[in-house]
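User: Predict the complex.
Assistant: Input components as received:
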Amino acid sequence: MDRRKLIKSCSLVAVGSMFVPGFFDKVLAGEKEIYKKYNKTLLIKEDGTPITSKDIPDNTVLLFFYPYKSTPCYIINTGEEVKPTKVKLSDGKEYEFKGGIGNKKSIVAYSAICPHQWSYPTKDFSLINYYPSNQKSETTGKSGVIQCCAHISVFDVKNGGQVIEGPAELPLACVELLEEDGKIYATAVVGPNQFEEFFDMYKSDLIEQYGNIEKAKELLDKTVVMEVGKHVKEQIRC
Amino acid sequence: MLKNKLDVNRRQFLASSALIAAGSVIPEISFAKEDILPTKSAKVVIVGGGYGGVSAARQLRKLNPDLSITIIDKNPFFVSCPMSNLYLGDFYEFGNLCFPYQPLKAKYNIDFINSKVLDVDLDKKVVITQNERISYDFLILSPGISYDVDQSQKDFFIKYPPAFKPGGEHLYLKRLLESFNGGDIVISVPSYPYRCPPAPYERAALILNYITKRKLKAHLYFIDANERPIINSEGFMKAYYKLYKGYADYITGVTVKEIDTTKNVVKTTNGDFRFDLANIIPPMKASRIIEKIGLLEKGQKWVEVDTFTFETKVPNVFVIGDSARSFLPKSGFGANMQGKIVANLITERITGKKLKQEELLMVLCYSMVSDKEAIMSETSFKIDKTKNVITPIHREDNTRRESTVKRYHEWAKGLWREMFG
């Protein structure tokens, strides 16, 4: 893949930099931090058939693992169009979030690893959960958000995972979705992903769960999309 | 019988709270302004390897790969005060509170010196420890608290440790509790401010939980210099009534005057209380090393620092955590945030790059009220630097929940991951 094609496919365009000489080099250097392409992974249902946008009703959240076998993500149908937007980081860097997919462009996906202090949905419980537009958080009164109840960081699902409230310094990393012939693929992670930290922080847990760390780091070609309750015993909301 | 009233509403609480009043305008105080930017090879020395110090070090390293960062602490490893009441309550392993400092060097090239700081020469910019002199360009002081007690009381506090400083005090208090065979217990709370606002109330609940689980013939006299639990008042009072009725007297607005160590009697402004086991939590003040250095004004208990930067009147010398007078409550979570703020500021001074300014700071406090259930509170502080105004928003969840226990554990583990992971 040449550099131009890669950039085009990334849906990541450094704002206001298109005509600056050396732009591609700069973007590519920045990509390590804010854009990472992984396997083109087919999202499937538990029966093994590909999931379609019709299988994800409005105001629904489902869980899948991407790009690694052990890294959880949420796919969410917000019920309304999610438009492309720019996400700004605290150091001033910006990147583009390309918005939703599906008929209504209302389906988005995010990493479920909190970028604050790496809370994630375990088999026992999840403190980081989606609050659909019809279900407000008791604590913050917010809806249409992903909220982590460990330290009350709130992320705006309709705005590229930007932090609305709480101590998180970084937005939630977004999973880039591609809809092709009715099938849905995850293709990349946009935004500062937390995978390196996740594997480091939870190494002993992951070894216990997967047998060895290499298995936890296996990249997926297909990934099962499931109800959150199928993976997590208790979704703790606040 | 518990004697305090439960009719405390949140507005009253906020108004009376020692937390900053809503919309407070910060008084203009002249603090250091540093014009000369040190070079990229700057040296940062951090006194105190607690929540503030380690958080500052990690944030500095995240932003400055080549910076020289040194933490000095008299303890050989970190012991968390947050969660330590769960250990005293006998349902949390002490080892879970402990973290070695070695990974800071091995993984993040942050030097650690296990030594006691004897003094700091602010003119020469040198920290003097038991074994060496360490020069600095930036100094972050995060040494925690000292107990504000008379020399004559020192022996008593060795015999009955307050357990508000990490480490041995908790271990010894737990031994005392384990060998307690029934009788009278006295726990006292000083006037706010002190370290970790809900901690004495959580401790009282967990010691009551301990004695009821063991069916000990015991009674707690819980003597509070404040008029009510200063945080989560409703949640604590409900727990005391519902879970431990008949096991305790909660006596408020009363201060400890004297301790008769020969007769095991605590003399208060509202009578004497004999005890078989005591946990007198004394008034606190900034760590003695701060006083020794000369950064504590005469007659003051906490160090005056710039409200937003935590810089003292000496340029590039910062005081964070429980020693500082701050709008943030004295807590591990608050120290963690302060550490990051100071690290960002130092990075700006070193690199000349402006980082995004904090517009909102928050402190979360969780408290167990039994071995199964917890309550929590959150205070967010909206910062408007242009108007010099800080507006707090306080929220409490006073319903006892098992799910809040899981949040509590994850709250602590998250902080520890960020500091030591």
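Chain A has one domain: 3-235.
Let me know if you want any component modeled separately.
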